[in-house]
Amino acid sequence: MIVECTADADPRSVQRLVDHLRSRGKLVHWVHGPQPVLVCPDERDLDPRELQAWPGVQRVIPIRHAFQLASRDYRPEGTKIRVGDIRIGDGEPVLIAGPCAIESRTQLLETAHAVREAGAHMFRAGAFKPRTSPYSFQGLGFEGLTLLAEVRAETGLPVVTEVMAPEEVPLVAEVADILQIGTRNMQNFSLLRAVARQPKPVLLKRGMSATIEEWLLAAEYVMAYGNFSVILCERGIRTFERMTRNTLDINAVPVAKRLSHLPVLADPSHGTGEAAYVIPVARAAIAAGADGLLVEVHVRPEEAWSDGRQSLTPEAFARMVREVRAVSRALRMIQ
Ligand code: PEP
Ligand code: MN
C-alpha cells in the first residue's frame, strides 16, 4: 500500500503515522521525494479509509504487487519523463541512437551529426564499458565523458551514457541527461541507490537473466530511494537460441506496460546482436507498444571497437526511423 502525503505535510504528523503503522507490526519505508510517500508492502488488516483520514495524507493506494511505486496501480495514467523538450512515454516513439562506445572525437561527432540528421531525438555512447573480457576495450572513461559533453554542446542532442560504479555517479551525472544502468548491473543495489540519490532520469536495462518482476523490483529500488524518473529498457534475454546474441523478449513490452506506469524502451541492437535483424525487431517493438528505441549506430560498423556486428550504418538507421514512424502512424490509426 502506498500512502502519499501532501507536499506541505507536517513531518511530525508523517512521523506519527509511521510510528502508528510500525506499532501495528508493519514495515514502513519513507520515500523522501518532492512529497513524503510511505510504502507499506504488507497491507493486510490496513483500512485505506482510516489512513486517508490521517492529517497530511493526500491519497492511499492499495497495490497488488511486490513492486509498489513502480506499479501501474500507483499511477494508472502512466508516467512521462521529460528531458529538455522531449517527453518519453507520451505517444511519439523516442529514438536514442549512437555508437556502443566512445572511441574518438571524430567518430563521436560524425555519428552524432548523422543520427541527428536521420531523426534521432537523443544520442547514446558509452564511456564506461562493461566488457565480458578484461582484455577487451574498457571505454575511454572520464576522457570519454569530456568528448560526450562536447558533442552534446555542439549538436544539442541530449545524451545517454552508462554508469557502472556508485562513486562515479556524480561525475557521469554532470554530463549525462539520462544515466544508463546496464544489464549486468540491474541488481547492483548500491549502484541503484546511488543513481536514486541524484535527479537525472535513469534508463534501467533488464538483466539478461532477470524475470520481469525482478526488473520492476530493481526499478522499485531507484524509486524507493527517491528518484521516480525511471525508464525501463528491454534489451534481450538469454535463451537456448544461438542464431542471435540474445532473444528480445517482445512479451516484456506489453507486460511491463501493463504492470508498470514507467515508460518502456526496447534495444533491438543487443536484443538481436546482428545488424540485419535490428530493423524488423525495432518495428516489432514499436508495434508491441514500446515508447521508444535505443539503437547502436556507427559510421563504420566494421571498424567499431565494440558491438560493430550489431551496429547500423547511418543510412540503415535513417531507414529504420522511416519504418518505425510508419508503424507508429499505423498504430495511431487502429487505436
Ligand atoms: C550498451 O548499451 O552498450 C550495453 C552495454 O548494453 P547492455 O547492458 O544491455 O549489454
Ligand atoms: Mn553495446
Offer a quick outline of the entry.
The protein has 335 residues and is of the alpha/beta class. It contains eleven helices and 14 strands.
Description:
The protein has 11 helices and 14 strands. The chain has 335 residues and is an alpha/beta fold. It folds into 2 domains: 60 residues, Alpha-Beta Plaits (2-Layer Sandwich); 254 residues, Alpha-Beta Barrel (TIM Barrel), CATH 3.20.20.70. The protein has an 8-stranded parallel β-barrel, surrounded by 7 helices. A 4-stranded antiparallel beta sheet has the order 2-3-1-4. Helix 3 packs parallel to helix 11, helix 6 packs across helix 7 and helix 10 runs parallel beside helix 11. The chain is globular and about 65 Å long. The protein binds phosphoenolpyruvate and manganese (II) ion (MN). Phosphoenolpyruvate binds next to loops.
Counting DSSP H or I runs of 4 or more residues, the number of helices is 11
Strand order of the largest sheet: 7-8-9-10-11-12-13-14
Q: Using the 3D structure, state the CATH architecture of the largest domain.
A: Alpha-Beta Barrel
Query: What is the CATH level 1 assignment of the largest domain?
Result: Alpha Beta
CATH topology of the largest domain: TIM Barrel
Give the strand tally.
14
Distance between the termini: 32 Å
Q: How much strand content do the residues show?
A: 15-25%
Please compute the radius of gyration using only Cα atoms.
Answer: 21 Å
Largest sheet descriptor? 8 strands, parallel, barrel
The CATH superfamily title of the largest domain? Aldolase class I
Shape: globular
